[in-house]
What we know:
The protein has 92 residues and is α+β, with helices and mostly antiparallel strands.
Amino acid sequence: MKYLIKLYVTGQTPRSMRAIDNLRRICEEELREEYELVVIDVLERPQLAEDEKILATPTVVKELPLPIRRIIGDLSDSERVLLGLDLRPYEA
């Protein structure tokens, strides 16, 4: 099962960078190579953010597998991220 995860950030701020680092770490630890992470800077691609109705950043959207899940914040609480995005850990 491959996960498609999009992270919406605003610029290269410390908060954005922390969210990117936290999400990459969580994905590597829990999903191994079974994911694709797309980072979208809403300053560079405002139309994408508008189309997805992104109101705050950082926001993570897990698009696949369905159902779609969203979570807002710097993603520092791994358990909250796993539960909020309904991520199932990789099983060896």
